[in-house]
Specification:
The chain is an alpha/beta fold and about 200 residues long. The chain contains ten helices and four strands. Helix 4 crosses helix 10, helix 7 packs across helix 9 and helix 7 packs across helix 10.
Length: about 200
């Protein structure tokens, strides 16, 4: 009802399980699928992976009561583009849906503040410049683009990137992206760019 009342948003289907959502993809052709982490059956995180495998052009927003870093990381690793807490105001869900439909990533602001706290894990070991490099990497910028934005050499960016990888024990770019998302380094409108290879 909330989404139906919004201009420019049409609800094409309403199902009870992730499996039902997957079965309805071909018939309904949704641009966005809203899943709950704790749906009956396979649940929203595995459901995200299956939805996107079947319909890669779709976007997924996760709605959840869970606010722990691991669940958020798992949701984004499964391909979700948005994560919203059930306790948030209705407007937050609408904001998330609109942002994701514009091609942005969305992390509930309440979550971002919680997960980005200095006590929230290994990111506290990074310098301000390393945090900025990590954020830009997670947004999909290349080393040379980051160098241009930060007015440093590409070699300096490569050095920061190595330091970040060592400190976070991250062996791949996708791991760095997950860590940045989980820590709330990238939220809402600042995550509009696609990831670079």
């Amino acid at each position: 009802m909330l989404l139906e009342a919004e201009d420019g948003i049409e609800v094409v289907g309403d199902v009870g399980t992730a499996e039902d959502a997957i079965r309805g993809l071909e018939r309904l052709e949704p641009d966005l699928v809203l899943l709950d982490v704790e749906m009956p059956g396979i649940g929203g995180i595995e459901g995200s992976e299956r939805v996107l495998k079947r319909r890669p052009e779709a976007k997924v927003v996760i709605l959840s009561m869970l606010d722990d870093q691991q669940t958020v990381n798992d949701a984004f690793a499964a391909g979700a583009s948005g994560y919203v807490l059930k306790r948030s105001a209705d407007e937050e869900l609408v904001r998330a849906v609109r942002a994701v439909l514009r091609g942005e990533r969305y992390l509930d602001p309440a979550l971002g503040a919680t997960l980005a706290a200095p006590t929230a894990g290994p990111l506290s070991e990074l310098s301000d410049r390393e945090l900025e490099v990590l954020r830009l990497l997670a947004l999909g910028y290349t080393n040379s683009e980051i160098a241009s934005k930060l007015y440093v050499s590409t070699r300096t960016v490569e050095s920061h990137r190595r330091n970040v990888s060592v400190k976070l024990r991250a062996n791949s770019r996708s791991e760095l992206v997950r860590l940045a998302l989980g820590a709330g380094l990238i939220t809402q409108r600042d995550a509009a760019r696609p990831e670079a290879d």
